[in-house]
Description:
minor pseudopilin epsh fold, four-stranded antiparallel sheet, alpha+beta
Amino acid sequence: MTLSIASGITALAVPEFSKVLTSMRLRAAMSAMASGLHLTRNEAIRRNSYVVICKSGDGRDCTKEGDWAQGWIIFFDPNHNVQVDADETILYREAPVHNYIRMWGNTPVKDYTSFTSFGRAKMVANNFQAGSFYICAPSLASTEGFRILVDKSGTPRVEKIVLPSCN
């Protein structure tokens, strides 16, 4: 009797626990990305030069392939070419986030974000760079997720949002 009651409680608790765990992973991924953007901006101001955050699957070079969930690097980029050159320092490496999380940026921030010494985001062509990063978990029944907006000032801002899908 006790065994059947315990298995019934477990059957009810496991799906809920899985949902809570995925939600925690989603929040951790959002926090890591927001912290990375803040660190990049702060280092650009501190170093009085360009500092870049870019997608990186290997922790050494920027890539245009895949999404931000594969990990990223932050590096000092005084020549503003958004490539890690031999004389440039990688300041931080972020490992891939959990494989149940999706992270992507819209076109202006799809592959990288570069901050100036004034803390503003600028593309390689010196165009203003503003955009949004989206973070969600396809395994959650709802399409709730997060958006991190980098606006004209360069300050990242986190918003909880509902996405049309997370595929």
